[in-house]
Amino acid sequence: MDVQMDVKTYRYTGTQKLVYTNNSPDELSRVYYHLFFNAFQPGSEMDIRLQNIKDPDKRMMEGDKSRIASLSEDEIGYLHAKTLTQDGQPVDFTEEGTILVVDLAKPIPSGGKTTLEMTFDGQVPLQIRRSGRNSKEGVALSMSQWYPKLSEYDFEGWHANPYIAREFHGVWGDYDVKITLDKEYTIGGTGYLQNPNEIGHGYETPGTKVKTKGKTLTWHFKAPMVHDFMWGADPDYIHDVYQMENGPTLHFFYKDKPELQENWKNLQPKTAEAMTFFSNNIGKYPYDQYSVVQGGDGGMEYAMSTLITGEREFGSLVGVMVHEMAHSWFQHVLATNESKHEWMDEGFTSFISSLCMNQIMEQNKQNPFEGSYRGYYALVNSGLEMPQATHADRYTTNFAYGISAYSKGSIFLSQLGYIIGQDKLMETIKKYFDDFKFKHPVPNDIKRTAEKVSGMELGWYLTDWTQTTNTIDYGIKSVEADGEKTKITMERIGEMPMPLDILVVSTDGTQETFYVPIRMMYGEKENPYPNLKRTVLEDWPWAYPTYEFTVEMPLEKVQAIMIDPSQLMADVDGENNVYQVEE
Q1: What residue spans of 7-87 are helical by DSSP H?
Q2: Which is the most buried residue in 105, 277, 306, 559, by most CB within 10 A?
Q3: How far is CA 574 from the centre of its chain?
Q4: Is 191 left (phi over 0), alpha (psi -120 to 50) or beta?
């Protein structure tokens, strides 16, 4: 792409040459492009949804009114294809909101290639959601979702989702992008700069004298094997470079404000720590560069980079950086379809981010995921929960979407660790990344990976947790004397099956655990408490509502019984999980 930006009018023009390979087994007679900026217009689907959802995003509202609805002609966003050819032949195309429908001049056979050449123009909207101009923190240009982007075609067909509110799905490619704009502006974002000694702005070789002529500069970036391209630009960016030892080069772009500098300087070694943590616990970061750019309206991940708001307390600044960087693995290398399986990206990112923050910020939490569990329980109690298999745009409330994607998605992994064992969970994550990087995995892929690592059958877990709103609720129904032994009766109250770790504490302080596998797992986990005696009991078939076992201890010696001392099983009623002898 070759793009010219007018920083006074916030309008731009561009040309795009796209060489597309049809890797599917199907012949394609049509393609679709995303025109995301068209969402930022009065009457768009995004605007109407904002006006009708029960709990609209406050960032997008002015009081109780949609900020999009009040945009004037010179404040709206738009992106229009002006001309489009296929291998030199004009093609018919129709703009339908945020989607461009293209009927090809000739079908693309399976395995075939075609070249699509487009001219387009756009206007950058006022900053409302993710991208835009003149953010609340004064960043001039947050350029995400800014170019005509080809939709993804896979075994399910086309994913030409209109831009209504949520997440994204994209096609990997090698990007070669030239951006021309006012020479006072510094650009940071996706890709490797190809002409640093012409540009300067902190990219040039030390000691090089940079001479620029005219009023504009052309920045030339290349980004191999990415499915998105973002850039932020501002005349007052400070650009810092932090070179990791045995790791990628880190770039930081933030406004030249005295109150920001200490936090943004301190952020840099923490970014390196996070990069090391994720590379060690998920897999090697596959690029040589990562950029943290001030801009946007919160935090949002992009290829090789992130846009984050920068006027934060230090802990919050590190937290948003850590979360968005973690997306580099789960969204920008694995790249699940976020519109359909947002929990696989947002949830897995939240899980690994919680572990990372616990380490690099020395939080020392016994359960780093406690916030996710609180959120999930609040959702269950609200009555607003919908299955995680719901399309991201179809949730009736932002509340339900957010907790389902982030909190319940995170618990999918933390609870999986409870089921198969923590060591097997971390092994699963590494194998999942290694097996499915650059392959757009679907829910069955993480399930099958966990099955291969653990030797258990886990279809029940994927089904109940992600495709239903079934809840987990086990209780201690009764504790009775049985001669010199104690009989414990458990009950399954919720519909979702789970294996049980049961801790029994005697009056002399002795502790031991009892493990109840569920039959449909056809396997058992290792003892998670190796310092305690564990008894593996008979399987509990799901259809049986109760389960009995005996403890070689008289009733008067039993001090307490507890289901799941780890608190990693998301049991919705913790009160019936504990039997305690009153003092």
Answers
A1: 45-52
A2: 306
A3: 29
A4: left
